[in-house]
Design a protein that fits this description.
Blueprint: E1 12-13, H1 18-22, H2 25-36, E2 38-44, H3 71-83, E3 87-91, E4 95-100, H4 102-109, E5 113-117, E6 142-146, E7 151-153, E8 160-164, H5 188-194, E9 207-212, H6 219-223, E10 227-231, H7 246-257, E11 262-267, H8 273-281, E12 286-289, H9 300-311, E13 315-319, E14 335-342, E15 348-350, E16 357-358, E17 366-367, E18 370-373, E19 383-386, H10 392-396, E20 414-417, H11 420-440, H12 447-457, H13 487-492
Length: 494
């Protein structure tokens, strides 16, 4: 073991942590780095000699400013820290952040230190309040803290009142698996079964782009080994923020049908053509979009961009809408996706939540082309999907009783929802399967060929009425197009 990855010999560990750290190269390296530079905050003395550390739970909007140190006192604290050999990282509003080697910090503070991890049980006085779980730590969970208290009274003078050791925060990430709910819902296994997805193909080697509200790196995706990457671009530098929650959730549906696909998440841009071009430039073979404009509002620059991307060989899917007369879902060259509902007995009917209409802009254009799975009115709460905790969807649909609430927490990172927003990426995943098989046969299918395979292989749906009240009669029909996507039959046509 090199000096860079060695753990200081006199450094102790919280109960049960040492063997875990020493058996992991990444954890050992993290502890070594922490020992080389221990970071702490200097609480600066106040002229009234009331330490801010003694105000825990007592500060409020009326009194907090009284504990802000004046610049002279802060300067004295900074000078003293440097005299002690500590490095000043930042002189802040209420404290000074400093760091130094473990041996120096021990000498300056007069304390013994040990390694602790957030989220691990421990009975030590200084950190027991932070223990919350028995899961193994990640490197960022580790920190070095005094064994007795996180706040040490300083005895070094120079306006230094306390040395404060602040642990890393815990991040309120959601569970890796969906919560149990009491109403009829479908999961990835159900989606694959109903859409007749065979085991032979998983979308490997195919790149699918989702353009949506943002893409939080939910633990569900990593825990299930799914290849999901939010992509930052100049137009959307924070692709991993999903305040609405829609993008993170609907991506679940791509992997439901194509668990081996590479899925890239592109945060929606203003104007939208930028994100579409980013997805195409990244080499996406399939672009799925669960958004659009009501009343078939057509924007020529976006329209031209979509058409050019399709001409370049990328299959582009758009949702038909949830009671909307939506464009680009009505654009003839895209694959337009509606919704079919499978009830608790497995009976299929057109979803009364999903759109189906004849275009008023494009003569003879019937929307949708075909369907994925979708819930029903009033809120289409049907698929429990991962999302960014505490976002708009998580809060808006939380709690309550089905069908008006999803019976999950308002910040648990799981949301019950669906709509054609979910149906569209399901079909996008099946397109990935089709392209995977075609590639294995040495073929490169055009978007028009993919479109033809999907519609020719769909299963007729002839029950129910859609959101517009249009009945599903015949095949094709205005309510469902050619019907419900059938993966196995589509693959047999390749």
């Amino acid at each position: 073991m090199t000096e860079e990855t060695s753990i200081p010999q006199d450094l102790s560990f919280a109960a049960g942590l040492e063997s875990t750290v020493r058996s992991s190269e990444s954890l050992t390296k993290a502890v070594s780095q922490l020992g080389r530079q221990v970071r702490m905050t200097i609480a600066v003395a106040n002229r009234n000699r009331e330490p801010i550390q003694k105000q825990r739970g007592l500060l409020n909007n009326e009194n907090f400013s009284a504990f802000k140190p004046d610049e002279e006192m802060k300067a004295m604290a900074v000078d003293r820290a440097r005299e002690l050999g500590l490095t000043v990282v930042r002189s802040g509003r209420f404290g000074v952040t400093v760091e130094g080697p473990l041996e120096l910090v021990k000498e300056v503070s007069g304390a013994d230190f040990f390694v602790q991890a957030m989220g691990r049980p421990d009975q030590s006085r200084s950190t027991s309040n932070f223990a919350s779980a028995h899961t193994p730590p990640e490197p960022d969970d580790l920190f070095i803290a005094p064994t007795e208290s996180l706040s040490l009274e300083a005895k070094v003078g120079g306006a230094i009142d306390h040395f404060v050791f602040t642990p890393p925060p815990i991040y309120f990430a959601p569970a890796q698996s969906s919560p149990s709910v009491g109403y009829h819902n479908i999961n990835t296994g159900d989606i694959r079964r109903i859409l007749n997805v065979p085991q032979d193909y998983d979308g490997s080697g195919v790149r699918v782009a989702v353009v949506d509200t943002g893409f939080y790196p939910h633990p569900y995706y990593a825990a299930n080994g799914l290849n999901f990457r939010p992509i930052s671009t100049p137009s959307a530098p924070r692709a991993d923020v999903d305040q609405e929650g829609h993008g993170t959730a609907i991506t679940y549906n791509v992997f439901a049908t194509a668990p081996g696909a590479e899925v890239l998440g592109f945060k929606q841009s203003r104007p939208p053509q930028d994100a579409l071009e980013d997805a195409a430039d990244a080499g996406a073979q399939v672009i799925t979009c669960s958004w659009g404009y009501p009343n078939e509002q057509v924007f020529p620059i976006i329209q031209a961009t979509i058409l050019d991307i399709i001409r370049d060989g990328t299959t582009v899917l758009f949702a038909a809408g949830n009671g909307h007369y939506a464009w680009p879902g009505s654009q003839p060259e895209v694959v337009s996706i509606g919704g079919v509902f499978s009830d608790a007995s497995g009976q299929l009917e057109v979803s009364n939540y999903a759109s189906g209409f004849m275009s008023s802009v494009f003569s003879g254009r019937r929307i949708p082309d075909l369907c994925g799975l979708c819930g029903e009115k009033p809120k289409a709460i049907y698929i429990v999907m991962p999302t960014q905790p505490g976002n708009q969807m998580d809060k808006a649909l939380s709690g309550g009783s089905h069908p008006y609430g999803d019976e999950t927490g308002n910040a648990d990172g799981w949301v019950g929802a669906s709509g054609t927003s979910s149906a569209t990426p399901q079909v996008a995943g099946i397109v990935a399967l089709i392209l995977q098989k075609a590639a294995q046969k040495g073929r490169k299918l055009s978007p028009a060929e993919v479109h033809g395979i999907l519609t020719s292989s769909a299963s007729a749906i002839t029950r129910g009425r859609n959101s517009m009240g249009i009945p599903a009669i015949g095949q094709p029909n205005v309510a469902t197009g050619w019907g419900l996507v059938d993966a196995a039959t589509a693959l047999a046509m390749v």
